[in-house]
Amino acid sequence: MGELTSYRLSEIGEANCRIWGRYSGKLDPLALFWTGSGIEWNVQASELWVDVETDYDCHEQWMSVLVNGAHVSRQMLPKGRSEICLFRNMNSQETKTIRLMKDVQAMSDDERACFLIHGVRTDGTFHPVEPRAYKFEFIGDSITSGEGTIGAKKEWDWISMFFSSVHDYATLVSEACGAECHIISQSGWGTLTGWDNDPRHALPLYYEKVCGLLKGERNLAYGAGEDYDFSKWQPDAVIVNLGTNDMSAFDQPEWRDDKTGQTFKQHKDEDGSLIKEDAERFEQAVVGFLGKLRTYNPKAHLVWTYGMLGSPLLRLIEHAVLTYRAQTGDENVAFVLLPDTTSESVGSREHPGKKSHEAAAQVLTNYLKAYLAAK
Length: 375
Fold this sequence. Notes:
The protein has 375 residues and is an alpha+beta fold. It has helices at residues 9-12, 169-177, 217-221, 244-249, 276-296, 314-328, 354-374, and strands spanning 5-8, 18-20, 30-31, 38-44, 48-55, 62-67, 70-76, 80-87, 95-102, 114-122, 125-127, 134-140, 179-185, 237-241, 255-256, 263-264, 301-306, 333-337.
């Protein structure tokens, strides 16, 4: 082992770093906002340490480390600034691909939540990270956040421990297709409304921002509320997995804002069917989001997926996709039904477990590979 040298990320250089997930463009420090965001290096060294800083009020940050594509560690991070060893005593003559992943979603209700990378220490050298063949963006709710992919089936606590970006279908599909991956996801959120009828909890409202659903002075200072520069990272495919929480809203009480008196509710009829006007309101939200996605991603293949926790809105989503096509003439959009979670594939919090994500990933991988091969 040689002497360790400290580097800021800007000193390593963008060519020698692959940034995963949306970020503000600032490297010193690099703020990680979304599920699966992180950084990747090709480093020829015997050891590598990373200088990280985290904070939270309730939901602590977790990170995973992949060495040459293998998941070798996962840990809860303490508050404040820490130096974490990513590997030690490895062959200094060999170049290792090291990827640090943020395992926890952007916690929109925790204003203090942050995850910063200040730099690294190593006894080796960094080498260029070659671009991957494709770029995929995934948009979704708790399923796409990897909630439930880790932990015992009996677990019901809503805590950071039971989130893992490593095992979610978005990561699995991206690895299978050789794609870079951005994930935009939030548990309980939907297309039109959150699970609780809260219309502020709709991901399309925040799509234009780097991570607009985060609050707090520190997150804003590191660029979470800035307009995202879509020109710097144009995806080959945008995969949306929303609708599960939109359906839940039909079974929940009316939402009311105590400050303004505003209310919102999706309704069912006495026979349990969806009220037509509210069903159409959801469809319009799907059509509108597809239009927004096309505005910012003019060449991407748009894929709306659904079904890992049942598919009661299947007909409405399929109809919305067809409506969007008819209204715009845009044929570069599709719907893909994902396999439902079973008693064998369920994970913690009765969310899709690792086996369920693997099954969904296989369906999406087959579809995307066929699409990309035919381009």
